């Protein structure tokens, strides 16, 4: 490496080895329809990972490691990354592990893989995320579990009869694990309620949120119609012969009038956040192949992008949607960049209110001083360069996969635009933010 490269790497807080993206793919994202979808989280990751491996000139056994993010794997998917690796044919000698950072699990998988390559511990890592939110189990409540336990411990017919007599109909009340997973246990707020809080803090109205939601659908529809999503999405087939080529949550016929008719979902009386201006409950997966420079040279691999750096930040859990404000600020500061240096930003659309609040916070001198410790605000991202092909409001937000999707889409979107620097970022339940800096060849320095 040159002295200038070493200085740049030191400024990023990273070792000198480059981390390169050589392939990637995702499934269409499938909106949950009130019942378990046709694919498990493992099925989806295999469907995304198989075409990635098919493009490689080496066998699956040559991979050094598999890392997968997943927020809620099922009981029969413990360490889901290992199951995925074996189903993809990586063989028993290739290690694999699963990471969980809520909405940023897929981004964490890429970050962990990046660090492994940068430190010289690996040369080829398959990494990404997967989630089948429609399969989130419905469980017995604690009272029912206790009653069943008493029944099982009873040694005599009389004991079982006494235990049975203690049954109450309230024991049958189910526990929806998906709702629990989307609720912060410390502040006792659902993610939608935190979106209401940041909307109120920055004065973001219902009309603004609905307009942003409509734009997301329109932009994604335009990207599909222009063929811009083909390099990113692999066709998916289910056992009934149904073919999926697009994200099924995309609503091409939505209008501002239709969105305006929807009732608030999280604060029925005063709320502004609805199902229409929020991300969708979705199943999907995205997987990428990361490689070192030596692996690229050895196997003559195409370089799609370089992962330059990533940054994590913590915020008040009750305002978790503002996590990207802090993560992006830290990322750009460490790399001596400004918002103007970012060719495109992919900011996960957990809620329209949350995205618009991040824009307002980046542009606020008061927020810069009091929350970020900066003399001047970072400045909002140019709306034309923020999610120009739409986002999670239109395509969905399968929690474990979204971070990987953001990076994959950022790469594939920048390539035909001449490349440049891009940032993928998202808020994280529990009060965090994550951001990754990407360089796509053909633009920027």
Structural description of this entry:
By secondary structure, the chain is α+β, with helices and mostly antiparallel strands. The protein has a domain at about 190-225 and about 310-440: Thiolase/Chalcone synthase (Peroxisomal Thiolase, Chain A, domain 1). The protein contains 16 helices and 16 strands. The strands form 4 sheets. Strands 1, 2, 3, 4, 5, 12, 13, 14, 15 and 16 form a 10-stranded mixed β-sheet that branches. The protein has a two-stranded antiparallel ribbon with strand order 6-7. A two-stranded antiparallel sheet has the order 8-9. It is globular and about 80 Å long.
In short:
With 445 residues, this protein is an alpha+beta fold. The protein is built from 16 helices and 16 strands.
List the main descriptive attributes of the protein structure presented here:
ten-stranded mixed sheet, Peroxisomal Thiolase, Chain A, domain 1, alpha+beta, disordered N terminus
Uncertain ranges: 1-13
Q: Report the span from N to C terminus.
A: 16 Å
Structural class estimated from helices and strands: alpha+beta
Number of helical regions: 16
What overall form do the CA principal axes indicate? globular
- The CATH topology of one domain is given as Peroxisomal Thiolase, Chain A, domain 1
Main beta-sheet strand count, sense and barrel state = 10 strands, mixed
Strand content: 15-25%
Quote the average pLDDT. Answer: 92
Gyration radius, to the nearest Å?
23 Å
CATH class of one domain: Alpha Beta
**Could you give the count of β-strands?**
16
Overall helicity? 25-40%
What is the second-level CATH architecture of one domain? 3-Layer(aba) Sandwich
Please identify which CATH superfamily of one domain we are dealing with.
Thiolase/Chalcone synthase
């Amino acid at each position: 490496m040159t002295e200038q490269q070493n200085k740049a790497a030191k400024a990023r807080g990273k070792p000198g080895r480059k981390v390169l993206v050589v392939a990637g793919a995702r499934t269409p994202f499938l909106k949950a329809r009130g019942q378990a979808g046709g694919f498990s989280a493992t099925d989806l990751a295999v469907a995304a990972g198989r075409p990635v491996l098919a493009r490689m000139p080496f066998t699956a056994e040559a991979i050094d490691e598999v890392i997968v993010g997943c927020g809620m794997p099922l009981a029969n998917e413990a360490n889901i990354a290992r199951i995925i690796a074996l189903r993809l044919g990586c063989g028993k000698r290739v290690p694999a592990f699963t990471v969980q950072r809520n909405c940023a699990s897929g981004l964490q998988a890429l970050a962990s893989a990046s660090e492994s390559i940068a430190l010289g511990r690996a040369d080829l890592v398959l990494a990404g995320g997967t989630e089948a939110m429609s399969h989130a189990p419905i469980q017995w409540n604690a009272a029912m579990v206790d009653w069943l336990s008493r029944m099982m411990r009873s040694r005599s017919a009389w004991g079982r009869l006494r235990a049975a007599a203690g049954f109450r109909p309230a024991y049958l009340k189910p526990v929806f694990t998906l709702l629990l997973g989307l609720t912060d246990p410390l502040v006792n707020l659902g993610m939608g309620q935190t979106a209401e809080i940041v909307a109120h803090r920055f004065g973001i109205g219902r009309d603004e949120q609905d307009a942003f939601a409509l734009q997301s659908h329109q932009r994604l529809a335009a990207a599909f119609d222009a063929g811009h999503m083909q390099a990113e999405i692999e066709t998916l087939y289910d056992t009934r012969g149904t073919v999926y080529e697009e994200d099924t949550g995309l609503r091409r016929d939505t209008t501002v009038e239709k969105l305006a008719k929807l009732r608030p979902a999280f604060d029925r009386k005063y709320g502004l956040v609805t199902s229409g201006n929020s991300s969708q409950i979705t199943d999907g997966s995205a997987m990428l192949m990361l490689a070192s420079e030596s692996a690229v040279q050895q196997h003559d691999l195409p370089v799609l992008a370089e992962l330059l750096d990533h940054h994590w930040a913590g915020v008040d859990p009750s305002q978790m949607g503002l996590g990207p404000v802090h993560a992006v600020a830290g990322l750009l500061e460490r790399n001596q960049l400004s918002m103007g240096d970012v060719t495109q930003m992919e900011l996960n659309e957990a809620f329209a209110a949350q995205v618009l609040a991040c824009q307002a916070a980046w542009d606020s001198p008061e927020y810069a001083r009091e929350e970020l410790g900066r003399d001047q605000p970072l400045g909002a991202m140019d709306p034309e360069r923020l999610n120009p092909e739409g986002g999670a409001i239109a395509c969905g937000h399968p929690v474990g996969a979204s971070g990987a999707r953001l990076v994959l889409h950022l790469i594939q979107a920048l390539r035909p635009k001449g490349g440049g620097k891009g940032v993928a970022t998202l808020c994280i339940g529990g009060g965090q933010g994550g951001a990754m800096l990407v360089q796509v060849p053909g633009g920027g320095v």
